[in-house]
Amino acid sequence: MEHATPLIATLVGGLGLAFILGAIANRCxxxxxxxxxxxxxxxxPFTPGYVADQSLANQLAEIGVILLMFGVGMxxxxxxxxxxxxxxxxxxxxQIAVATLLGVLLGHLLGWSLGAGxxxxxxxxxxxTVVLLRALEERGLVTSxxxxxxxxxxxxxxxxxxxxxxxxxxxxxxxxxxxxxxxxDARAIALAIGITFAKVAGFVVLILVVGRRVIPWVLHSVAQxxxxxxxxxxxxALGVAFGAAKLFGVSFALGAFFxxxxxxxxxxxxxxxxxxxxxxxxxxxxxxxxxxxxxxxSIVLREPVxxxxxxxxxxxxxxxxxxxxxxxxxxxxxxxxxxxxSLAQIGEFSFILIGLGMSMGILPEQGRDLVLATAMxxxxxxxxxxxxxxxxxxxxxxxxxxxxxxxxxxxxxxPTPLENHDVLVGYGxxxxxxxxxxxxxxxxxxxxxxxxxxxxxxRDRGFVLLEGNAVSVETLRTAGIxxxxxxxxxxxxxxEAGRIVEQARGINPGITIIARAHSDAEVRHLQELGADxxxxxxxxxxxxxxxxxxxxxxxxSS
Length: 558
Ligand code: AMP
Known about the structure:
24 helices; binds adenosine monophosphate
């Protein structure tokens, strides 16, 4: 009986154990992914006890990859990427280059071929979206400037890896294990790349031209029925991925990614994303379990030095590269530290890459085990990297400022001569209304705004303004916070607002601070940090609605 149901046994064993170990990992304040990977190790062939069906697990994992890539495509936003392209594009490319070079170097020391080193280095270069998004969400950083840069950066990394997945099979012969003396035939490679790109282009054109019309139409026609709608989304994701692979020779992953992009553009993308989330998550868990099954834990004892080398690349090499390039692009230290910390881990793309490298016979098993061990350890250490970056941020920032002041004076903008003025942070939906009213009032004030488009608008309207991020002490000082009488923080991100409140209160204990929040918890948080008045947007909406209804609000019910 048991042998007749290997699929059920694999599903139950994988999901059940993943749940238990994931919950334990969560309790220990680690990413549940660590638990899923360990569950895979436990049901894998390298540990005693039950061994799940490896080939079935691999197929389930493949569905997991399709759904993961579908999700990545659905959340891919050209607009978000464009808004941070100036730093995300060069940053991600530089970081990938540094990590790949270091990977090739380590591979060389381990006696691998160049191809193996390249795949290894690429696998170490790309961070996990799942881990990053969760880390940013936990810290309320998703909508902050540093959060948006980190996400844009990751999108560039993902896109680069999608390209690598397309090119690897084509370059396989050249990168292969026998590359020692073989001279690559440049023409054959160019031809193969050309054919592959033609196929990919054919697929992309078909999905963007035909898919863009057909997919929204299909979804629209079943939108009234929940079950059929969900089924349609899944059928599209899996069908496009499968069709892309069979008809165009494009990888499942790429097919799913584009299906996701087309769906993400449609008006029903939110619903499609939400409705398919449970299934996507379940298969993503199976993907991590299947990856864990491949892991031979004895690598830690067999290859401690090589493992330390790989860890060094992910934790130190990548972080330093990211840190340096963010600073070179003149972003504040805090942003550089968050980016460095958030990307100092590897995950799903690395597993997909090494899977391909292994199946093509390029990457030795040792490489796979090293990547898996590095992924587990770097994911476990990621929260500590974040903690460390937050703790050392103020120290490094003050050191940096001192040095900069001692050096060239070009960066310093003279502080505003205003006194007893108001400082307004953010010129968006809230800030623009406040600014217009303050101007009518005739009170002197200065606006701090970080977005260059908004800055242009402010300039056109003749406001006194300071371009920059108000989280930086330097910016606050330049806005004359020490002599200001009131500070209005009209930005939506509570994490950044909290930092601004803290810094401003430190510089000017007597200043009146008015801030904006979206929940009671945020109100309390900002008050604890020193805000005098915190306006909760949603509460004000409710009060306005009641006033439109003509209902008077008694004090105890408000
Ligand atoms: P809204 O979300 O429409 O209220 O807009 C908020 C505005 O605040 C946007 O124009 C942002 O560019 C700006 N903003 C957000 N965070 C900061 C910050 N830390 N420093 C300066 N401006 C900011």
